[in-house]
Structures are given as structure tokens and as C-alpha cells.
Amino acid sequence: MSQSHILVIDDDPAVRQILAETLTGEGHQVTVMSSGLEGVEAVKDQPVHVVLTDLQMPGIDGLETIDRISKIDSKIIAIVMTGYGTVDYAVRAMKAGAFDFITKPFEPDTVAVVVRKALDVYKLKQENHLLRKAVRDQYRLEHLVGTSAPMRMVLDFVEKVADSDSTVLIEGESGTGKELIARMLHFNSMRRERPLVPVNCGAIPETLLESELFGHEKGAFTGAAHTRLGRFELAHGGTIFLDEVGEMSLPLQVKLLRVLQERCFERVGGTRTINVDVRIIAATNQDLAQAVQERRFRQDLYYRLHVIPIHIPPLRERRSDIPLLVNHFIAQFNQLRRTEILGMEPDALARMMEEEWPGNIRELENMIERLCVLKKRGMITMGDLPERPVKMNAGKGVESPEQFIRFSEDGINLTKELEHYENRLIGEALRKANGITSRAAQLLQVNRTTLVEKLKRKGFDPKTHGYSIQN
């Protein structure tokens, strides 16, 4: 911030002179006005950071002056000045938005300290404003990378429904960019100035998820030492993003259904009904319609969430977007990792377009980061790409026997070998599922509880394998 500009409004010439001398001596630019109307006009003509105004003045009083100034520029910090007999009036002013008040007569040093604190708050407001603007710019619809027909359809649909308050269900495989779409929906909506609160329903233990969503009262359970606001309360006026909503337990689905229907709930351990104004965006990598048939997901909740469905196509169905994404991630990691990658040679790019990318955009992004870090500068060539993994048999999804069986003269221990191969399959499934056990269970065609029990029995340590396991 350049030199701070302080506006002093007081009908007493002596007060104006003292404040002008004090604040100028502190290095501030100072403008003095004798009435609230003059002060309001001054704010229209030039940028002001802090306003010191008397409360009782002819014409419009200090409260009205603060109100009019805040409508011109809400970032301006207001400090009110008042005599001892009108402190209650000053408190009213603070409730109306004033930062602080100073009683007359005052010490010049006291004024200087209060103004410095006010300027610190102004800087924070300015930084917050710039940060919000940067975030909004980042999630402008035209920044969605992709010109393929499937992605243009998604973009057009997002543009149509962003300003609606209707519930949205985003469906797609892991790594396709569901959270990015959710953020675009929020930051292009009327709620963009209010919070976007994400909740990963698959990463929070079931026993804690209810408290995370709805909050809890002090003493509601062991360890609840204080009352805590839930994510729905924190999202009031804005948007809540329920990622991996298909992982939610049936009892909790009932409570979520009530919020969707009535926009109200009670905290855990509480009896007071809390009303909230939120837009709900949910996302899942599961087939919720099938989950309804299997009685793993409530049908009434599914219909409540499925008001506006958005399907994000996997990367293998939008291969023409891969060159754009590659260039986008190269530019991104050149900046983040301070590399100097010029691009990718045509044969290497053709190879990238041939891959299946089961991890979708997230897998592609990780690959480009790895290539940038290892290459550091120049063009990425075919020789820089990792060797293709051994292909799986299309029918059964397992390696052919000759690729992994090694008989010694004494033979093999069948039990140990089967255990070893099972461990390899589980590890590979978790890697492809980015540590999400429900997705890994789908890949292995077993129930999630079966997989979790196997992991516990085997003492499987995810850190040893380079990723964390999520529910």
C-alpha cells in the first residue's frame, strides 16, 4: 500500500488541527473536513484508507456519515470520536461497523496507535479482497482446459446452471476434476462472495462425519470440550461441497436428506434447530443408481441430489484434450518447480495420447510433474517417458502365468505365493484408486469391508507403499 490517506471529519477547528499535525507527523497524508457531507464527497473524489469522524455534528451525524462512506468503499476503516457523555452512542456506532472509538479529550499518541491498528485491518481487508479476486479469476469458466466435444458440453452446462441455487450432483471417475467443476460452479454463482466449504465424506471416519457436518455441543461425547460449528453452519450463505457422497452411511444419509428438504438440523448433542442457507453440490465416483438398487444408498436422497446431474468424461474419452493439458501442466510446473521445459516432442505426445490414464487428469498431472522435475530444461522426448508397464490380459485383468511364476528345483510354497500375489494386486488397486479403499474394492470386485479386513489382517502399512489410504 502506498502512503496511507486519513480523512478527519470534525466541526471543531482545534480538533481538526491537532489531528492533522499528529497524523502528518506519523507520515500519513491527511485531509480534514468540517462536516459529514463534505467527508462523503471527499471519499468520492480520492481513495481513503481510514476515516476519523466526530459523532455529533450539524447536518448528518457520525453514524450516517459512516453508513454513506461504507456504501462508497466498504474497505474504509472508520474510527469515531465522542465525548465522555456519549459513550453509549459510540458503542452503537461500533455495532454499525466502526472499528474503534476515541473519547474526547484524547492524547495524540492514543490516536496514532488506534490509526496504526486500523491501517493494519485495512491492509488485511485489501489482501483478502485481492485474494478473493484472484480465486474468482482462477475459476472463471473459460479457464477450463479442454476443447473436445465432451468437455465443451460440460462447460456449456456448467455455465447454464452456475447461477442457479439448485442442488448439483457431479459424477465421474477419480481424477477427472469433479472438485474443479464444483469450484467453478461456486465462483460463477451469486454466492461467490460467501464461503465454499468442501467435505470429503470418504476421508473422514464415519464416527466423526456427523460432527463434522452438523457440529456438536459441549459435552456431547467424550472429548467434546467445546461447542463446535459444523461445515453446514460454516457454509451459511455460500456453498457446501460433499465429495464422495456415496461413502456416507445410511443413518447419516437420513440426516442429510432432512437438510436437503428443510435446510435445518441440530448439532450432535443439541436440541436447538439451526436453519441454514446453503447451496449443496455433491460428487461421487460411484454409480449411485446401482448403489440404490443394492440398498447402499437411499433412493429418496438420490433423487434429492440428482436435481442437476453433471457427468465428467474420463480422459480416455477426450484424448484430443491431452496436448492442451500437457502444455498447461508444463507451464504450471515451470513456474512452481522453476524448470525450463519448452514442450513435448510429437512422438512423445502421441504416446501420451495412446495411454489409457486410469487415474485421469490427476495421473497425467503427476506424470508431467515427474517429467519436468527430472528433465529440468529443454524438450521432453520419447526417451524421457517411463517404460510402459506389463499389459494386463484384457479378459481377466491379471498377468499371464509365465510372467510371474518362478519354480525352483524344490518347487514353491503355494500359500505364500498366493498371499504374495494377492498383496501385489491389492497394492496395485490402491495405487490406481489413489488410496480410496471403496474404489480399490470396486477394481478388485470385492466388498469394501472385505478389503479393509484384509488390510488389517495383513498389517498393510500404506506409508511404506507411498500413499495414504482413505475410506
UniProtKB/TrEMBL annotation:
One of its GO terms (biological process) is regulation of DNA-templated transcription. Residues 5-119 form the Response regulatory domain. One of its GO terms (molecular function) is ATP binding. Residues 144-373 form the Sigma-54 factor interaction domain. Keywords: ATP-binding, DNA-binding, Nucleotide-binding, Phosphoprotein, Transcription, Transcription regulation, Two-component regulatory system. The modification 4-aspartylphosphate is found at residue 54. It comes from the Bacteria. CDD domains: AAA. SMART domains: AAA, REC. The keyword Transcription regulation applies. InterPro entries: AAA+_ATPase, AAA_lid_NorR, CheY-like_superfamily, Homeodomain-like_sf, HTH_Fis, P-loop_NTPase, Sig_transdc_resp-reg_receiver, Sigma_54_int. This is Sigma-54 dependent response regulator FleQ. The gene is fleQ.
